[in-house]
Amino acid sequence: MGGGDVSKEMGAYRRGDHKLRKFVTARSTKFLLLSCIAFALITLACRSSRPWFNTSIAVADQISRSRKGYTLLMNTWKRYDLLKKSVSHYASCSRLDSIHIVWSEPKPPSESLKEYLQKAIKKKARDGHEVELVFDVNKEDSLNNRFKEIRDLKTDAVFSIDDDIIFPCHTVDFAFNVWESAPETMVGFVPRVHWPEQSSLQSGKAEYYTYSGWWSVWWSGTYSMVLSKAAFFHKKYLRLYTNDMPASIREFTTKNRNCEDIAMSFLIANATNAPPIWVKGKIYEIGSTGISSIGGHTEKRTHCVNRFVAEFGRMPLVYTSMKAVDSRSLWFW
């Protein structure tokens, strides 16, 4: 056989091999795609046909409802449309016992606003239970008002929330379940973290800390605070904040109109020596951007952290990497 014949045969072999590999690859891709589709359909069919799955959720929710509920403590300021939307939404949550609106405006709430909210709550009443609505009217405009002691609370659990933040009721109920498993700590949806400055560590001087936001939490997987704009805590911390926390801290937050949430995180961490718990949940912000979007916000918060360290005489915040996730809605966890 001549060299030319060998070259032709080798070329034909390569072309045949290439076609075979294309055929096998195409078949493999189609098989993989069909397998994925089939798996997805079987998964959905099994999930919809599993009475025990839906029953387990119903039983868990029923057990939860049999316990005490929680008080919604909502901070607001001249955003009546947002207040109406938030109250109307949360009034439908099954474990909500009462709504306390922290009112710090110069004029008391109007009768028309009260009437609107009462009607919205009555419309959402369930099983003969109507959520109680209370306006906690304050004479002084201070951020500390959101943590002022409320003596007649019927529930141990307080869900502190801003008027421009919405969570689905099932998400709030799950966070409440998490709090019930650790009622001494703070359980919330918005994690933040503090970091010691390396320069202070190396020089041996008193530690200086930096306040960091969400991206630092996301990058490091670590946090040491959950903000009170969306968090559960025990009602006793309202008393401690009002009566036992250094008055200089309350004066500082009133003067600077910032950092009352950091002060509450310090207070609870100082009392428990334990970290907060971050709960995974989708946040729907229905208002405009807040003070966190203003320039110099991080620097101001950093100043607060270091001021509070000096007031408490130590850094009480505790780092953690734990996140609570509702596994009932997940297949892989």
From TrEMBL:
Q: What broad class describes the main subcellular location of this protein?
A: membrane
> Which compartment or compartments is the protein found in?
Endomembrane system
Q: Where does the Glycosyl transferase domain start and stop, copy by copy?
A: 70-326
Protein name per UniProt: Glycosyl transferase 64 domain-containing protein
Task: Name its co-factor(s).
Answer: Mn(2+)
Alphabetical GO CC annotations of the entry are: endomembrane system; membrane
Q: Which Gene3D superfamilies match?
A: Spore Coat Polysaccharide Biosynthesis Protein SpsA, Chain A (3.90.550.10)
Q: Which UniProt keywords apply?
A: Disulfide bond, Glycoprotein, Manganese, Membrane, Metal-binding, Signal-anchor, Transferase, Transmembrane, Transmembrane helix
**Pfam families hit by this protein:** Glyco_transf_64
Named from the GO MF annotations, one term is: metal ion binding
Entries under InterPro entries matching the protein: GT64 (IPR053318), GT64_dom (IPR015338), Nucleotide-diphossugar_trans (IPR029044)
